[in-house]
């Protein structure tokens, strides 16, 4: 005859049940802790976050919900990369950088059940049209050749290079210096927004680097020969402005 120890089976079931409960509660507690320590550093999204995390900040794929809602990629606690940002019923589906719209996307306006869509490119959170524009300048019409390029990642510097086909010896020591250099660079809004951090010069090239504390920014530059230019930079980046002058 087969004897079944019902008491032993019941004890095993009870142990298994309590182990499962402990596991579930432990996982739930870990998930809550992860949510609580993983921050989104954007006030309109500061509420609840679920997703990937790095060093206490939302980083990777995730979803944040506060006053508004965002689903997509994060970097250092901010929407960065591809995602969808919901402003109530309206929403933007596209690219972000440092929490604002930057690059290609679609803005959907929902009214009375109808969807009105604006497609194109944004920079510094503003619609720029059907072509991706990250800056505006009059320098291209004032000098022989001008090249302007931003880094793909966010940054806070502007390097200006001025190249000429001639030089002088105005330092009095016989060392060749570029005949044209940057005499002044000003912020139209507030000069404290820019700070010179370095400069170098050779026989035919002058290079100067500035730190910028706010984007977008509008700048006015004056060269040593009196010629000036205006430059508006939209996106946060490490920028390079190259000016070529034939003499």
Offer a concise description of the structure.
This protein is mainly β and 247 residues long. The protein has one helix at residues 6-37, and strands spanning 48-54, 57-65, 69-75, 78-87, 90-97, 100-111, 114-123, 126-129, 135-137, 145-150, 157-164, 167-168, 177-178, 182-187, 194-201, 205-212, 217-223, 228-233, 238-245. It is 13% helix and 53% strand.
Care to describe what's here?
- With 247 residues, this protein is mainly β.
- The chain has 2 domains: 93 residues, Histone H3 K4-specific methyltransferase SET7/9 N-terminal domain; 111 residues, no CATH class.
- Helices cover 13% and strands 53% of the residues.
- It has an 8-stranded antiparallel beta sheet. Strands 10-19-11-16-15 form a 5-stranded mixed beta sheet, with no helix packed on it.
